[in-house]
Amino acid sequence: MKGKDLLSIGDLTPEEVWGIINRAIQMKKRRGMSTILAGKTLALIFEKPSLRTKVSFDVAMYQLGGHSVYLSQAEVGLASREPIADVARTLSRYVDIIAARTFAHATVESLAKHATVPVINALSDGEHPCQALADIMTIYEKKEKLEGLTVAFIGDGNNVASSLMLTCASVGANFKIASPKGYELPEKILRLGRRFAQQSGAKISLLKQPREAVEDSDVVYTDVWTSMGQEVEMEKRRKAFAGYQVNAKLLKLAAKDVIFMHDLPAHHGEEVAPGIIDSKQSVVFDQAENRLHAQKAILAEILGK
Ligand code: NVA
Fold this sequence. Notes:
Structural class: alpha/beta
Shape: globular
Bound molecules: norvaline
Distance between the termini: 11 Å
Order of helices and strands: HEHEHHEHEHEHEHEHEHHEH
Number of domains: 2
Number of strands: 9
Radius of gyration: 19 Å
CATH superfamily of the largest domain: Aspartate/ornithine carbamoyltransferase
Largest sheet: 5 strands, parallel
CATH architecture of the largest domain: 3-Layer(aba) Sandwich
CATH topology of the largest domain: Rossmann fold
Helix content: 40-55%
Strand order of the largest sheet: 7-6-5-8-9
Strand content: 5-15%
């Protein structure tokens, strides 16, 4: 992965996905500080809010001996104060790597096109690869395997669902998704997922009913119905997604040792019933923790020796 961009899970081979999982697990065991990225700087550009991504990238750089600089959209003005290409070319003269959270996926692609340093997608409207890598690491930790497992996603075929589907398809985990009409995974992502699945033997199932997806699944995952930037659609989406809440009754249909996952922030009482995140099936805060370990592995794979 040395020197590569990470814009989509589609940029990674299954071997690279496994490389990140294994390295992240090693780094988690070792905890502590290292000097792998001594003298290296990460620029963090955020067009949207962030808790986990911002803090985990910052702490990751610190623990690896490097440094990070946070830039909000108010300061940078990507494509408003300054063209994306100029931001990319300027930052490339100062820093060793850029992580960007953008609205349009095309923005992070444009940054990568014009930067001479690697660019990591820290969430775009299209994908959330860092989340998916932390998620697959979490699933592997909990289930001690990936091939042949079944991951059910309930809700919007959004950035989180897209990256998770691609990651599952890459490593041979089956992926079932139940979405209301009009909110399915994008066709382009599905085509890529099907190609990965053909190579790994994973099965991808597109369903309408949450219970069909959850039945006998090893993992049940959900995300918000209204993502950042879609706030004006909130009421419309609440109606469209009624019946897509993950609650205790739905989880009963899953495998006995099911784990519940959510990338956070959660809208408690909307996509997930109150109490589920605090239940013993929930691994939500392990996922959140693993963002740190997975991103340390990603940074080390891209920048390290
Ligand atoms: N789908 C959500 C994920 C937040 C981490 C969003 O894009 O807002």
